[in-house]
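User: Hi! I have a protein structure encoded as tokens and I'd like to know what sequence might fold into it. I'm fairly new to this, so please keep things simple.
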């Protein structure tokens, strides 16, 4: 699998662009759509994702996997891990806030949005990632949660092109392994980078809030929440609201 690259100046959302144009993409490759600016960037749970002009990386990877691919719902965890590799190679110390927010110093650096459309034997995967690269404090203050950028953390400008090249390489290698073996080979690494492990959290599954202890991550990538009544609940989707 190689990459086909599409560079856009401005688009509503790379995610929407990918879904509209998927039929034209080469299915034996990974299509990497990146945009300098998005006018209607989307986050998880229909939240807004802000993309200041030229400063950040706004990307959607489109590719196909077998619908029966093991642990398909955890594919975004694999992209998060690929990003942590690039960050660690740059001497940074990232953590992952389940399901796949990549954090630096307890602040959000990047988020992933995964949309999967299953058609018979194959699944279309639209895997979006937004990374705050050169965004400044003024922009970050507009975000409704604690956020940071590479520039703010390291006090220097980053080469977005080089960063994307490294991310693509890391993701390509991980995707090959995921395709063969599912999430299991990534499980330990993921759990080691997990933020709030063993701590009391408030969790939202899209409908209801739960208060419990973030116990662990299952070998498929689910979050195991240990409840006060000693029951263990397991979630494939949702969000940690606070701890
Ligand atoms: C989240 O943390 O809620 C997920 C954010 C995902 C943002 C990226 S930016 C590129 C792609 N296009 C979008 O509209 N969203 C994703």
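Assistant: Happy to help. Inverse folding works backwards from shape to sequence: for each of the 243 positions I chose a residue that suits the local structure. Here it is:
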């Amino acid at each position: 699998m190689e990459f086909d690259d599409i560079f856009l100046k401005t688009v509503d959302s790379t995610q929407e662009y990918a879904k509209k144009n998927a039929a034209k993409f080469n299915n034996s490759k990974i299509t990497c759509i990146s945009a300098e600016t998005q006018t209607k960037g989307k986050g998880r749970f229909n939240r807004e994702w802000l993309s200041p002009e030229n400063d950040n990386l706004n990307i959607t990877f489109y590719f196909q996997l077998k619908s029966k691919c093991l642990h398909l719902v955890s594919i975004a965890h694999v992209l998060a891990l690929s990003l942590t590799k690039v960050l660690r190679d740059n001497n940074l110390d990232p953590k992952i806030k389940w399901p796949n927010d990549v954090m630096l110093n307890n602040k959000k650096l990047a988020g992933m949005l995964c949309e999967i459309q299953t058609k018979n034997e194959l699944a279309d995967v639209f895997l979006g990632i937004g990374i705050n690269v050169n965004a400044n404090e003024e922009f970050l203050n507009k975000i409704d949660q604690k956020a940071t950028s590479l520039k703010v953390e390291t006090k220097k400008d980053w080469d977005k092109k080089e960063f994307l090249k490294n991310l693509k390489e890391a993701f390509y290698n991980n995707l090959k392994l995921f395709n063969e073996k599912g999430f299991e080979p990534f499980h330990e690494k993921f759990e080691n980078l997990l933020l709030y492990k063993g701590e009391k959290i408030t969790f939202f599954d899209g409908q209801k809030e739960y208060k419990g202890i973030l116990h662990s991550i299952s070998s498929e990538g689910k979050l195991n929440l240990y409840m006060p009544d000693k029951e263990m609940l397991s979630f494939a989707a949702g969000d940690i609201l606070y701890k």
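A useful reference point when you look it over: Residues 13-15, 38, 41-44, 47, 49, 58-60, 101, 111-113, 128-130 surround biotin (CB under 6 Å). Feel free to ask if any position seems puzzling.
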